[in-house]
Amino acid sequence: MKPTLQGKKIALIRSASSAVSKSQYNIQEIGLAKRLSEYGAEVGVFLISDTGATYQEIVQDSPRVVVFWLAGKKIPGQQGYYRDLKGILDAECYDLIQVLDDSQITTVLVSRYCKKRQIKFILWQGMYENYKEAYKKIIQCVFDRTFLRELRNNTKYCLAKTTSARDYLVSKGFPWAKIIPVGLELSNFQNPINRDYRNELGISADKKILLYIGKVESRRKPIFLMDVYADVKAINQNVALVYVGKGEMLDEVHSYVQEKGIRDVFFIDSLSQNELPALYRQCDMFVLPTRYEIFGMVLLEAMYFGIPVITYAAAGPLDVIDDGVDGLVMQDFDCTKWAQAITAHLFELDDTTAMGRAASQKINNSYLWDDVALRYASAYESILDLCK
Predict the structure, then answer these.
(1) Does any domain span residue 90?
(2) Are 229 and 241 in contact (CB under 8 A)?
(3) Residue 310, Ramachandran bin (φ over 0: left; ψ between -120 and 50: alpha; else beta)
(4) Please, what sign has the CA dihedral across residues 245, 250, 256, 258?
(5) Which positions ≥6 away from 307 have C-beta within 8 Å?
(6) What average pLDDT does this structure show over 107-136?
(7) Mean residue pLDDT across the chain
(8) Residue 138, pLDDT score
(9) Is residue 3 included in any domain, yes or no?
(10) How many structural domains does the chain have?
């Protein structure tokens, strides 16, 4: 029987310490909110605005889905915006509130808010390991000693995006956590633009294309990616790299490519959503060398469009990719191993098309919001005691 959330109001709050750009695509909370509305719920999504302004955006009228963009005040490892958030929560009168991640003061304050008003509270976990940086370790230690016991006492329901996130919650004293992944929002790819990227970039038909899309930041190891690509290029010249993204390390990466004389690297600052499908379909393998990946939407996107992904054994990839079947999961950041794996599958085994088909089938079967949201709706129905 299809679950029902008719007449219920649900809040999805991202309490993470970084702001969200409105232009960012595939925002998980918005994708989930749209699907929950199909079960009759009104949904409010709360995100930290990168504009410094607080405002709201109506996504749809009936059932109502609205995004509240909040102006956060940055403090080390946190974002302070609870006063604005509480005012909206008071006005909206939600039946269930789900907050992302355990390590934010806002999460504790909302759990306290819900307990006082007997509102159902869900801790939604994506982060799956403690901070590595020294100053963040100190903040985490102080936070846990001050707030963790209260958060455990206030939290009856926990949902984790990945197995690693569930294990993290168990280690923090939340053994009742259950796993429900996130999904891919396909409406972002409506009205695709049919661009010929090979022709536009001047990539010959005989070259295989490696693709990267994402921020140019240290976490995504852009210099390592360029070294891997250079090694692949040294083994077989019939390869090119298309690198899409902007970020703090872009100038450094540009300089590195020039200094090392790495050829056939094509940089694109950004593309709109409807320009991405054609690019995905014209590439042969997606390279994602990130040590820490909660549940990368770009991973799901590439696989959906039939491109096998080579990536590190982080939380999201470990749950999604079947190594050697629909992608490649590397256990370390050995440049030679990555280059050999890419070369083998692109030129020797020539199995990227078959791997891509398997990847696409997996996403279609298990990781689209249409199906994943059913699991969330069923969980919410049970928590709200609507299935009696």
Answers:
(1) yes
(2) yes
(3) beta
(4) positive
(5) 211, 280, 283, 284, 285, 286, 352, 356, 359
(6) 89
(7) 92
(8) 85
(9) no
(10) 2
Q: What distance in Å separates the CA atoms of residue 287 and residue 338, rounded to the nearest whole number?
A: 10
Q: What is the pLDDT of residues 258-283, one digit of tens each?
A: 999 999 999 999 998 899 999 999 99
84 by Cβ neighbours in 10 Å (0-12 / 13-18 / 19+) ranks as: middle
Phi, psi of 65 (to 5 degrees): -125, 120
Domain range for residue 337? 189-366
Give me the DSSP letters along 97-113.
Answer: EEEE-SS-HHHHHHHHH
Q: Is the pTM of this model over 0.90?
A: yes
Tell me the pLDDT band of 388, cut-offs 50, 70 and 90.
low
Query: Can you tell me the distance from the alpha carbon of 50 to that of 72, in angstroms, rounded to the nearest whole number?
Result: 8
Query: What is the distance between the alpha carbons of residues 12 and 7, in angstroms, rounded to a whole number?
Result: 16
Q: In which band, very low, low, confident or very high, does the pLDDT at 342 lie, cut at 50, 70 and 90?
A: very high
Can the peptide bond before residue 63 be classed as cis, meaning omega within 30 degrees of 0? yes
**Distance separating alpha carbons of residues 354 and 331, to the nearest angstrom:** 23
Neighbouring C-beta atoms of residue 154, cutoff 10 Å: 19
Instruction: Judge if 169 and 256 occupy the same domain.
Output: no
